């Protein structure tokens, strides 16, 4: 991690844990918002006006949080307005690195070798982990925001006047229920699988495992009434946030994270829901199963041999 802007050697590939062995995710530190007119958003400073070509997303295909920003970029037709770089799937001794792995990019924009260089460029005193996603401002050479929940929310509306895209993943009438469900799906599922995978005590693992499957059972039963999406006929932010975990489930969480009561493909309603979302325009292009498997299974603390499983090799069957 970075300490006062300098990379430190005692970096731990696994994030922090509490006294009962529960995995703790670092909170995000750059929280500015892009807005249509450049006024300040709910947090951070103003000055980040929506402009074509001004912003860049740094992502990892392995990362569910980064992938949700990529999905919204596709669904909101922002491909030409916001450029993207993909890091290699395997974390190095210096964190995320650019270039060399098939499907990954070099950092054409800033010429960085490692993601942490961009954090210290944005804040020469930055202390913390250099996580993806990062939303970068080319104009001022800094990080706008590194919290995917904020990034998907701002991409949902800030550029609408430039793109003419009217898809609304966060309709006002559903805001309350979306916020409520997002919070549960985050703790029980999105982060729940990590809590199971990175637990360092049997009790912490079992607690997380049970919560993950209780949430999956609940979603499976809701979706069994034939609705297309979690809140009915309209696709919302909640579906994007659920999808990124479901699509990684059989490839990474079932095996590596020991969430193995059953596979996702044996949960009929959830599997077809996941495939329905994957079939939306350009969504499948944001899912790289090879990066996902190579990345997760490279975590030495969980898989010392580094062997990457052959299956599953597709999200579509
Ligand atoms: N709160 C962040 C979490 C991002 C996050 O944890 N990213 C992980 C990859 S899935 C990461 O970059 N980890 C690198 C590290 O911890 O050093 C978000 O949702 O944007």
Explain briefly what this protein structure is.
This protein is α+β, with helices and mostly antiparallel strands and 317 residues long. 35% of the residues lie in helices and 7% in strands. It folds into 2 domains: 162 residues, Glutaredoxin, CATH 3.40.30; 109 residues, Glutathione S-transferase Yfyf (Class Pi), Chain A, domain 2, CATH 1.20.1050.10.
Highlighted features:
single chain, 317 residues, alpha+beta, Glutaredoxin, Glutathione S-transferase Yfyf (Class Pi), Chain A, domain 2, 2 domains, two-stranded antiparallel sheet, 10 helices, 6 strands, 7% strand, binds glutathione
Question: Helical percent range?
Answer: 25-40%
In what order do the strands lie side by side in the largest sheet?
A: 4-3-5-6
For the record, the CATH architecture of the largest domain stands as 3-Layer(aba) Sandwich
Extract low-pLDDT stretches.
none
- List the ligand species: glutathione
Name of the level-1 CATH class of the largest domain? Alpha Beta
Count of the domains: 2
Instruction: Assign an overall shape.
Output: globular
Distance between the termini: 39 Å
Protein structure class = alpha+beta
pLDDT average, as an integer?
95
Radius of gyration: 19 Å
Q: Helix and strand succession?
A: EEEHEHEEHHHHHHHH
Strands, total number: 6
Q: Name the CATH superfamily assignment of the largest domain.
A: Glutaredoxin
List the total number of helices.
10
Summarize the biggest pleated sheet: 4 strands, mixed
